[in-house]
Amino acid sequence: ATFPSLGADFFSIANCSLISTSPRAAVIEVEDGTVFSNLSIRDTALVGGRDGFRYDDRSSRAASTQLQFENVRTEQGTSGDGWSFDIRTTAQSVQDILFENVRCDNARNGIRIRGGHRITLINTTIDQRGGKIALDIEFTPATVLTIIGSFGQVGGAMRLANARKATGVPSQAGGSFGPFEIWVYDPEAASRR
């Protein structure tokens, strides 16, 4: 099938440092309407900019799948209201989002996701504190968040809308989430703030 939109299939960015020259721009910005499958960003530093990675989709015509960030760090963010990773879609879902060995800098907020299904954090450090937001996810019926061996800094807020913890181990270090948690959609659950 063909789609009247941009596509990125088996696209990889690896082994580099990418730097934004604009304090209001993202280091990587995926154009509205882009559909991707097996997009991998690995062994990469996202330096500067308002956001490290931004995908604000309002017009894609198919779901995107397999978005992977492996051995990625964000650093030297230029805006306290920016995000290390900002993945939002109102058009189609983004399925299977993986953060593995990722570190979010504390100059901006951590991870924001809208329209994501099957989100996994493995050995990921979200270093937000002092009122910054570590995780901000709006759950839909297909959203599941799995956290394994990861850490959210003390003082970093979590906003998980329409979600309840299905299982998990409490944080031993007082962080914003524990080393193992599974969150699922529950429209009657109060948002965790």
Describe the structure.
The chain is mostly beta strands. Helices cover 0% and strands 58% of the residues. The strands form 3 sheets. An 8-stranded mixed beta sheet has the order 1-3-5-7-10-13-17-16, with no helix packed on it. A 6-stranded parallel beta sheet has the order 2-4-6-9-12-15, with no helix packed on it. Strands 8-11-14 form a 3-stranded parallel beta sheet, with no helix packed on it. It is globular and about 40 Å long. The termini are far apart.
List keywords for this structure.
193 residues, mainly beta, eight-stranded mixed β-sheet, six-stranded parallel β-sheet, 17 strands, 58% strand, globular
What's the gist of this structure?
The protein has about 190 residues and is mainly β. The protein has no helices and 17 strands.
